[in-house]
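Entry type: protein chain
Record version: 2
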Amino acid sequence: MANKFQNITYDINNLPSLPFIATRMVELLNAPTSSADEMAQVISADPSISARVLQIANSSFYSMARQVKTLSTAIVVLGEKTLKNLVLAASLRGMQKKFGPPEQLLWEDTMTCALGARFLAYNLKVIDPEEAFIAGLFRHVGRVVFNNQQGDIYAPILLHKPYNESDLNAREKKQFGVEHTTLGAAVIEQWNLSDIISLTTLHHHDDKLNAIEDDETRTLTAIVNLASEFPLLLGLFGSPPDCDLTEWPGAQALKIDQEQMAKLLKNFRQVFNENRENFLA
């Protein structure tokens, strides 16, 4: 693991491993001769992941012209990068040691942000939508680790009402000596995912995104920063707040005006509501 995370006070030697199926999928996608049938065989080893991939493949979010009935077809129709992301998403959900209210909240927050990031990237045409999806998916992986390893302590912090992101981050720092952003970036480095995903996880709550020098990293972080507010606006944490998203660092970095923002939110809310059960059940 990179030295930049060695000084955090949380026990980074006890971080989770990437689930086997996700690891194997990444290996196959990096292999020059892998086939759709080989990938389908790996995914089919976990019935819950298989079912979720097919369920999402047939959702209107991916605008399939025909029903996808087999994993091999899903791989061909969706594309390898999209499939990898769906497997990673299903694997991340499966990492939870139990599944009660805190875990459901984390899952809904994670998937809503990931879908929102993909939606924004696709409509704004500023970065690869699948890269945006994976960045949104892992931006709160540090919170999954907190909850998995010290759930008795973390669940009350996570479920504290009213929900306030800054307050939650401060509580994490006080209790664990590190915020979820830093811990999440360390996890991603341990999993050998890309540097840009690690950096996006680390900086997605930053107020001054223009300080990020690399253009691609800055754009991706801005997308995730903005998509991070979608779970709040859709009411996943209670009554939606009355706020102007064009004032958010992500919106300002992407130069989104109020008219464009209103249209984006309206369209995302519609497609999200149509597919809510497919993604969050």
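Comment: The mean pLDDT is 84.
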